[in-house]
Design brief:
alpha+beta; three-stranded antiparallel beta sheet; two-stranded antiparallel sheet; 7 helices
Amino acid sequence: MTVYRFSPSRLCFFPDDEVYSDLPADLVEATPEEYAAFLAGPVLGLVLAVGNDGRPVMVAPPPPPVPVPPVISDRQFFQALAMDGYITTAEALAAVRTGSLPAVLAELLDHMDTGERFGAEMLLSGAVEFRRDHPLTAAIGEAREMTPGEVDDFFRRAAAL
């Protein structure tokens, strides 16, 4: 009878009747019940995971991520920036009320060449919505040292406001 060993780091089973050139160091012998659950799990909509004890377990898959909204309003954008501490609440209110640029965004514009600067300033001070796919969104995210995933999360949080 084949014995199956489980690797928590690789999240997979290794049957002992096969030859491997490189086995992970964290192998544990799986019980027949654990391996049977692994085989039946996908039919039941379950996925393989590592339990708190390092043993293989079948669990419900995580929910899909909330879709990234393609657009948020100017209010949502500036409010989220303020809630993140990137701008002050006074700057957020001024940006929404009068189109006044927060200091950190004005500084970002200072680093743009003249050709880009005018369009970016018009957008930041006059837009009623901000698009996730706009190049300026990526530039602001980079200025904040955010990954694309963190920018997506920012848009999700802002959309919920």
